[in-house]
């Protein structure tokens, strides 16, 4: 794409990536805006999200424009699988009536909103590996998963094909990393749509109304009218 530089994300870019998450991803992601998460709410969580992807200095992508402004990111990492254990892990039935108050209160962060976000994503991603094995008609075992944690483009780049270009480069990196599957937790309708366009299938879905704290749904009136978080994946081997 003219005027854009696509670089592999490194730890040196950490401050810029963190600011991008706070300034753009935070205010564009529907589940984050629905709980009115402030910069302080997600500050530490976004540091961990950033570091988990950039520390490998191989798999993430950052995009700069001609003015050296950061205009897009894809934060990714490779998950190594214990082939003989995780592929055959028992899948617990989903309980649509569960209350997540205790998990949120005992979460890793001081911020309740950060714990709400993390708890929801962890529940959407629950049983990723055995679900991949069970739902695959060839019953392939998973050894390496290329996991997309964040894909986000600057508002000024919306509709210009940057997200599509990032997806193409994600697959290139997944192949280079010798991964079996590319997977992502998609909570925004826009993310779900682009993953579907690239052949991802939904292997687990958690309706927002099922995610409750003290008996009340946490995510309500989402800006994109989304109904659920989806665990989506595509085999590339």
From TrEMBL:
Name recorded for this polypeptide: aralkylamine N-acetyltransferase
GO terms assigned for molecular function: aralkylamine N-acetyltransferase activity
Catalytic activity: serotonin + hexadecanoyl-CoA = N-hexadecanoyl-serotonin + CoA + H(+); dopamine + acetyl-CoA = N-acetyldopamine + CoA + H(+); dopamine + (9Z)-octadecenoyl-CoA = N-(9Z-octadecanoyl)-dopamine + CoA + H(+); serotonin + (9Z)-octadecenoyl-CoA = N-(9Z-octadecenoyl)-serotonin + CoA + H(+)
Assigned protein family: Belongs to the acetyltransferase family. AANAT subfamily.
The species this protein was found in: Mesorhabditis belari
Enzyme class of the recorded protein, top EC level: transferase
EC number, as in UniProt: 2.3.1.87
Pathway: Aromatic compound metabolism; melatonin biosynthesis; melatonin from serotonin: step 1/2
Keyword Transferase: yes
Domain of life: Eukaryota
Stretches assigned to the N-acetyltransferase domain: 71-223
Keywords: Transferase
KW Disulfide bond (keyword) present: no
Pfam families noted in UniProt: Acetyltransf_1
């Amino acid at each position: 794409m003219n005027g854009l530089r696509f670089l592999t994300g490194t730890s040196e870019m950490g401050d810029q990536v963190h600011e991008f998450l706070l300034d753009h991803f935070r205010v564009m992601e529907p589940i984050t805006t629905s709980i009115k998460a402030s910069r302080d709410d997600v500050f530490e969580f976004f540091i961990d999200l950033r570091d988990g992807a950039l520390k490998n200095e191989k798999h993430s992508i950052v995009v700069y424009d001609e003015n050296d402004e950061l205009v897009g990111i894809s934060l990714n990492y490779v998950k190594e699988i214990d082939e003989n254990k995780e592929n055959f892990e028992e899948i617990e039935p989903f309980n649509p009536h569960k209350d997540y108050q205790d998990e949120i209160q005992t979460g890793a962060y001081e911020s309740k909103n950060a714990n709400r976000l993390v708890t929801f994503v962890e529940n959407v991603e629950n049983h990723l590996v055995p679900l991949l094995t069970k739902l695959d008609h060839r019953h392939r075992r998973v050894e390496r998963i290329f996991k997309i944690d964040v894909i986000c483009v600057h508002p000024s780049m919306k509709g210009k094909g940057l997200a599509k270009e990032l997806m193409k480069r994600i697959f290139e990196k997944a192949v280079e990393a010798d991964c079996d599957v590319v997977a992502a937790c998609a909570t925004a309708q826009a993310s779900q749509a682009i993953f579907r366009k690239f052949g991802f299938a939904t292997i687990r879905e958690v309706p927002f109304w099922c995610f409750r704290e003290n008996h009340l749904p946490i995510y309500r009136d989402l800006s994109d009218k989304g109904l659920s978080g989806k665990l989506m994946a595509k085999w590339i081997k």
